[in-house]
Design goal:
Order of helices and strands: HEEEEEEEEEEEE
Helix content: 10-25%
Number of helices: 1
CATH architecture of the largest domain: Beta Barrel
Structural class: mainly beta
Number of domains: 2
Distance between the termini: 53 Å
CATH topology of the largest domain: Porin
Number of strands: 12
Largest sheet: 8 strands, antiparallel, barrel
Radius of gyration: 27 Å
CATH class of the largest domain: Mainly Beta
Length: 237
């Protein structure tokens, strides 16, 4: 065997011998995505004084995290959510002069909230726990809309009542990595507690229609604290 072939054979042998270690090292150096976008379904449990007037609710949440450190530990979280905590529906003729056309009247009691604050995400493996805190605003509103009995979209809508209050949130969650790549996808499970303080709001039954066609509102003022359970996905950007 010539010297050149011997050297080439030794080089290939050394290269293949070191390949598993190289692959393992690359596997260990899975860096977290620079930024993250999450969307989830939410279940809301009123707590404290709010629980005396309102039952469970549900809705959607969305958040984004901008990493402020290369290892992904420290980030800035932007968080928003939409929750319905009460709903009423009844059917009625469009008017006394058009009794053959029926419409659905829907009333939704909602909370729209937005918050901003720090998030700490630990580790860079397939399971990554995190904690966060945000400060922002919550908008309590009750909206009524009218749509045809056989239609999907409303053709008229009115805001019956609304109020704005501060929102302070603290939460924790777990990211379970589902896919790798440039935009990894993770299962995101979390729970958070939000302190709203006192607010004025309506609940189911707070709007009474009078015989003369006018409305009487019975708003409630109380603490409006909630615990939110979230399940969704987070996508690395």
């Amino acid at each position: 065997m010539s010297r050149s072939r011997l050297i080439m054979g030794l080089a290939l042998a050394i290269g293949f011998a070191g390949l598993p270690g190289t692959i393992a090292a690359q596997h260990l150096r899975v860096l977290p995505p620079r930024h993250m976008l999450g969307i989830n379904g939410t279940v809301v449990r009123p707590v404290g004084e709010f629980q005396q007037f309102v039952d469970w609710g549900g809705g959607l949440g969305m958040y984004g995290v901008v990493n402020l450190s290369p290892d992904g530990l420290v980030g800035l979280r932007f968080d928003g959510s939409f929750v319905i905590y009460g709903h009423e529906r009844y059917a009625t003729p469009l008017s006394p002069w058009v009794p053959r056309v029926w419409v659905d009247v829907n009333t939704d009691n909602m909370i729209l909230s937005f918050g901003l604050g720090p998030q700490l995400t630990f580790g860079n493996g397939p399971i990554r726990p995190y904690v966060f805190g945000t400060a922002g605003l919550a908008y309590f509103t009750t909206v009524s809309s009218v749509k045809g009995a056989d239609n999907l979209d409303a053709f008229a809508q009115s805001t019956n009542f609304d109020d704005v209050t501060a929102a302070l949130t603290g939460g924790a969650g777990m990211l379970f990595r589902l896919t790798r790549g440039r935009h990894p996808v993770s299962l995101d499970l979390s729970v958070q507690s939000t302190h709203h303080g006192e607010a004025d709001y309506l609940r189911r039954g707070s709007i009474v229609e009078n015989p003369d066609g006018s409305l009487t509102l019975y708003p409630i003022r109380s603490e409006t604290n909630i615990v939110t359970f979230r399940a969704g996905i987070a996508i690395g950007l």
